[in-house]
Amino acid sequence: MALFTSAFAQLDLLRQPEQANEPLQAFDAADEYLLNHLHGQGLAADSRVLLLNDHFGALACSLAGHCRLTSSGDSHLGFIALQKNLERNRLTADSVTFVPASDSVSGPFDLVLIRVPKTLALLEEQLIRLHGQLAPGARVIAGAMLKHLPRSAGELLEKYIGPLQASLAVKKARLLFVTPADKPAVRSPYPTRYQLEQPPLQLLNHANLFCREGLDIGTRAMLPHLPRSLGPLRVADLGCGNGVLGIVFALANPAAELTLVDESYMAVQSAAQNWRAALGQRPVTIRADDGLAGQAAESLDLVLCNPPFHQQQVVGDLLAWRMFTQAKAALVRGGELWIVGNRHLGYHGKLKRLFRGVEQVAATPKFVILKAIK
């Protein structure tokens, strides 16, 4: 049990995805600092409050019932955590309105609380969207652990919102108090686009996408080795990002039935737009999900995956291992999981613990492309 205590509530909170003997908490000192400061300043019950990037619902669950609350973020796992933590603490689901980061929030808001995200492009997009959404006299407060608070985050807050004052550090956390100023509307630099040479595709990337300025080198290593002309297979691009693996595979396999899945709402939004641009009205399933948790057992013939090695600022193979186990459950017997990974991550050994056969399809000095057979 991980109890989170603030001036507003004492809560039992879970991270997502859940794991046995979880070593990490669903909250940190920045959450506590934000809430205790807010309690000291006072919060009217009719205040319209916007939370941005509340990782696992610590802020939302603490403030539920104390104000009119909207929470927005780009993680579907974060949304699942919010739902579970509301229920776990006997809080009503309708006490928080959740808006995916792929959609715009609707103000005006009296208070905006921001957890500074790892991807500052996401912060920039969120700040640009706040234009015209702040009520007169609105307060904007950002919080982060010192080790995750670059100077450029404060510069973005000053650029798009107004003058900034930093707090003293408490428990290695800091708050940034921003006074909204009369700023002109700004055209967002997102989404970005880049050109893929082979096959010739222009790929669109919303603000929170990994490698949004160009194709990541792992995917680049995998693309030439994707199987072609396989017939009417059921195929998933797991952790699809902008959809490039699934789209390139679909172009080379006209009879295949594709499902593209990611836990980032902006990734799903990007993948859907890229699919339509490349493949028009060809049928496809594209969804935000906890990997393949929502996929029926033994319903896929092939899974393609470039697994992540981090969740927010936490580095590790938890998400990759979870993807491998989900893929095994979703594949038919004889079905295949194709992955690309850094050599040093040792995915070959991990996959051999799950699958009856693992083959190396190709390799570069940095990456291996592996095929695991159920």
Task: Describe this entry's structure for a reader.
With 374 residues, the chain is α/β, with parallel strands linked by helices. It has two domains: 3-178, Vaccinia Virus protein VP39 (Rossmann fold, 3-Layer(aba) Sandwich); 192-373, Rossmann fold (3-Layer(aba) Sandwich). It is built from ten helices and 20 strands. It has helices spanning 29-41, 58-63, 76-88, 120-129, 151-160, 217-222, 244-252, 265-279, 318-330, 347-352; strands at residues 3-5, 10-12, 48-52, 68-73, 96-100, 109-115, 134-145, 164-166, 173-178, 192-196, 201-205, 234-238, 257-262, 285-288, 300-305, 310-311, 314-315, 331-342, 357-363, 367-373. The strands form five sheets. Strands 5-4-3-6-7-9-8 form a seven-stranded mixed beta sheet. A seven-stranded mixed beta sheet has the order 14-13-12-15-18-20-19. Helix 4 runs parallel beside helix 5 and helix 7 (244-252) packs parallel to helix 8. It starts with a strand and ends with a strand. The model is unreliable at 310-316 (pLDDT under 50).
Q: Features of this protein?
A:
single chain, 374 residues, alpha/beta, Rossmann fold, 2 domains, 7-stranded mixed sheet, 20 strands, S-adenosyl-L-methionine
What is the string of helix and strand elements? EEHEHEHEEHEHEEEEHEHEHEEEEHEHEE
CATH architecture of the largest domain: 3-Layer(aba) Sandwich
What is the overall shape? globular
Radius of gyration: 22 Å
- Give the total of domains: 2
Domain Methyltransferase small: 201-371
Family: Belongs to the methyltransferase superfamily. RlmG family.
Organism: Pseudomonas pohangensis
Keywords: Cytoplasm, Methyltransferase, rRNA processing, S-adenosyl-L-methionine, Transferase
